Amino acid sequence: MSEQTWVQVIGAGMVTPVGGNAATTAAAVAAEISATEETEILSKQQTPIKMARVPNGALPDIHEALSDNKIPARQQRLLCLAAAALVQLTDLLPAGQTLPLYLALPEALPDYTTPLHGNFIEQLALQSGIPLNAADSLIADIGRAGSFYAIEKAIQYLEQSGNDYLLIGGVDTYWDLRLLAKLDTEDRLNVVGVLDGFIPGEGAAFLLLASERVNARHIAHPVRLYRPGTAQETGHRYSEAPYRGDGLDTAVKAAIQHAAPAQIQSVWSSMTYENYGAKEFGVALTRSSAQLVDSLDTQHPVDAFGDMGAAIGCTLIGMIATAAQTRVRFRHYLLCCSSDLSHRAAVRLDIG
Questions:
Q1: Which of the following CATH numbers is that of domain 6-210: 3.40.50.300, 3.40.47.10, 3.90.70.10, 3.40.50.920?
Q2: I want to staple 310 with a disulfide (CB 3.0 to 4.6 A). Which of 104, 182, 228, 243 is the partner?
Q3: How is the chain split into domains, by residue range?
Q4: Exposed, middle or buried, 330 (CB in 10 Å: 0-12/13-18/19+)?
Q5: CA atoms within 13 Å, Cβ hemisphere of 141
Q6: Is CATH 3.40.47.10 correct for 223-351?
Q7: DSSP of 232-281, one letter per residue?
Q8: Over the stretch 78-94, which tens digit does the pLDDT of each residue have?
Q9: pTM more than 0.90
């Protein structure tokens, strides 16, 4: 298989705290609009926890068949978020085909387990009304890096199956009392008295991908994703191993190697502004500085919609791809995502 194998982004659907689709989300991020607000949930210091949430009015009601007590409230919200984003791709889906979905979901953090009840892909098909090929679908429940791992597997699927289309997506929410309490106990939330915390968010994003064989001339500015770079960080946040920054650095170098040669003009990341993530991001860029233009543009959209967890990868791609159809700012992008545990991933994106 060629190291320069790529896929095309045909369309994007998303729902975020700052927008009900990819276009409005991209515009809000560009305008530096933030959806962060205080919630009614109190921290251990009895101060309001801040969060960026998708308005309930932007989400469908949970399907009656999925509303029973066996499916946890967080999973029901994940299904509603995912369905609101997925249905936006309805008109773009190839006629007569039931596509697989490669989906990034929240990672299981230490001392916090929320196993999914039932088959999430089948439940999403029911909730959204869009038939999905559950048998050939894949779940990457590894958090922020999950979407890029899904792209890596998607490229392999399109190469090996001979099929030309596939759906990928990511969905996550921190709107869960037990999860927020855990993070608050660990002093990870950006609340009064914590100087090294992040703003939790939520959202969902989906992409329709096509193989190199598909003629996408109807797209004014084609968007190409190369094979991602993936790696493991042994010294991750919940590990006792020393942190050296090798995981994201390895992923970034692999992503650059897999792509057509070009100087990277813009870098987008999942960085949440916690010191750990900022240090890791800085190390990765420094070690690959020869591949970056001097006037590098860097974007960390968590300022707008908080940490979207497993949804961030497809959200970054969808915003860039959609905004490029009206204005091309840059041609060559690098996207980086780091999970709380060991998974690290990066991908090169080109605008035609």
A1: 3.40.47.10
A2: 104
A3: 6-210, 223-351
A4: middle
A5: 12
A6: yes
A7: E-TT-TT-SSPP-SHHHHHHHHHHHHHSPS--EEEEEE---S-HHHHHHH
A8: 999 999 999 999 999 99
A9: yes
